[in-house]
Amino acid sequence: MSMNRSIKVSVTLLMAVAMLAAAGPWLSPHDYITTNFDRLLASPSLFDMHLFGTDDLGRDLFVRTMLGVRVTLVVAIVASLVSLIIGVAYGAIAGFVGGRVDAAMMRFVDTLYALPFIFFVILLMVAFERNFFLIFVAIGAINWLDMARIVRGQTLSLREREFVEAARLTGVSTLRIIFRHIAPNLIGIVVVYVTLTIPQAILVESFLSFLGLGVQEPQTSLGALVNVGVTQMEGAPWILLIPAALLALILLCFNFLGDGLRDHFDARHAE
Amino acid sequence: MSLLAVRGLTIRYGDNTVVDGANLSVERGESVGLVGESGSGKSQSALAILGLLPQQASVSGSIEFDGQQMLGADEDTLNSLRAHRIGIVFQDPMLALNPYLRVGAQLRHILLSHGLAEKAEADARVIEMLAKVGLPDPERQVRSYPYQLSGGMRQRVMIASALIAEPDLLIADEPTTALDVTVQAQILELLEEIRDDTALLLITHDLGIVAGRCEHTIVLEQGRVVDAGPTTSLFASPGHDHTRALLAAAPRVDRGAAPQPVSASTLLSVGNAAVSYRDVTAVSDVSFAVKQGETVAVVGESGSGKSSLVRAMLGLVPMTAGRVVYAGETLEGPVEDRALSQRRDLQLVFQDPASALNPQMRVQAIVEEPLRVHERGVGGADRLSRVVAVLEKVGLDERYLRRFPHELSGGQAQRVAIARALILNPKVLVCDEAVAALDGSVREQVLDLLRDVQKETGLSIIFISHDLAVVRSISHRVLVMYMGRLVELADNASLFGSPKHPYTRALLDSVPVPDPVVAPKRAPLRGEVGSLVNPPPGCVFHPRCPIAAAICSNQAPTLVDHAGTRVACHLVKG
To answer: What 3-state DSSP class applies to B203?
Structure first.
């Protein structure tokens, strides 16, 4: 099985963006925090190495954008992994065990659904000190609910399929049935759902940052940069356009990656 | 001028030609059968006639309906033709009827939207039509939703909706394939009675249906018309090898040699088995035994409990009462609690190979999985050679090892499923409708394979089927079940030669015979299988029984031995 093109292209682009984000700030003479009042809202230029220009406080935007990409990627990937691990395990157990266990587990999910998310996040932020870790918890805590429901539904229908019955009849162990017969048939839908989760996590993170509940200044993320950019859109459009373009590129890449991975994992599409 | 004249019809999807230069014509009032195996292009041709092919299809040739060219006609013309002059009945009425509309509303809509009736008289016409198609109590049933009706009743509604506009041509695409055989007989009879001078194009894979019902027959093979002519002469002297092959592969319920009875010791016995799901009793008090090297068939319509019976026997569903004895040992509890040694001797082959094989596993992994469980000591190389050997036994070679199930045809996939069941050299093979999803010629090959394996290894087979013609050709003994009860248990020769129970006789009379000389019998049974939730008192068959007497409605019959045949009927004597 060879990787298909959309996987290759999107992985290459994502790796390039990630490497630039990792190495960029070292290569630049500036840092993300120093303000330069001589060069407020400077446009991108090679002169004194403000490649992406500066913001309204005179901070170098190249370094800040790279920092934003780091934060955004880390938040998105970690939050999605959290929701993936909790959601798949929870959903698969509920679906495969079934009966009362399933009913109890899913009613718990329903209860969590009923909590207003923003209220929940504000409570978290007020109760604890604002930090990075809480953002993962907050985003992961909502996303795994959807994942659990989807995986449970799929497991329920797979459990009734005849190949699972054939395996039971032969004496294949429950663990092996889950890993050999159920899990591989879940991958397609899980991968698709994760790629929907990543962009969603990115958007939620930028929304939280906008409310002042996410990443705190002087730290930044792509979402926070876009929000700043909106206020300067008329005088200095690059402040909006550059992070917005990067955000769009990352979202597109994850979407294409999801499509490609779905085809790759599904034996019926792979050639 | 023919009512419908199709000339040189060719349908392509990209490079794939599904219909290749087909010619066919239907005269006014005539009934024409279009037969072929799956993939022969018969449904595609019907969709082309209706102008319902998907956009990707490229169609050429000519389709003239009553002198009017339909290929390339605009949507308005097609809509008007489809509304007023061509009716269609699909295989699955559940998909063809709108689940959110009451059946009366659907028929009313047809009348009103095409201006076929005034609002005031529409309701009366709908009820009249539903009465005509034999829907009981039509005044009340117009208010039913499709899901509240049985499959047979839904198909009657579908026929009503196809005929309510009084079309000139009715196209029926496998109209009875999803139905039980007694209901199939009713629907075929209804189609014949009700169509008056409407021409009928009947599309089917079953030569028996065409033989009894159609004046002309057209045979399709891989998109080409290979044979066509009046039904009687076409069946008497087929003009093409493919027609001969189809006829040879069509098993006949009315004749055929019975396999020699087996005299060996009993290997497996089921005593007084009962299966209940909540308040539904699916199986009650069924006993039978299987000898070594014997094929025992379990036949019955849907809801007869034949699948529940063997699933309970295997431990896949709980058995409410009764016991299973295999080789002197009692098999108890769910399959997970049984000893591995007991499990390896009883294997199951499912109806639909597409869902019985894990789509994410290759053939090799699928077939070797039982070995991994039961013979852990076997090394990779030995395992591979065992897999290759069993694949050869079912007629597949090494090239298939690396394939995924979706890369196999239906017949190949079923062979893989059989190979998986045979790799542990089981003593009993349960085939649950194992050939029902296969085309005629492939079905014969798979049946031959089962016979060969049995001859070679002395395998016992429990063969669940609704198809009595197939059962006649393969089984030594037959169990006939109705609504969870065993109604007749006989050896092959006596069951097909002198059936005793009225239900068995009706079943046999319902099976279409692929021979136009044998006139189709009138549908032998009225009504449909009763409710399992609330079964009729006395003999469960009495509401449909043509010979029911007073005793039948208040006293349940017991199985009584009549010269080797066991029958549960008050009225069978000696």
So the answer is: strand
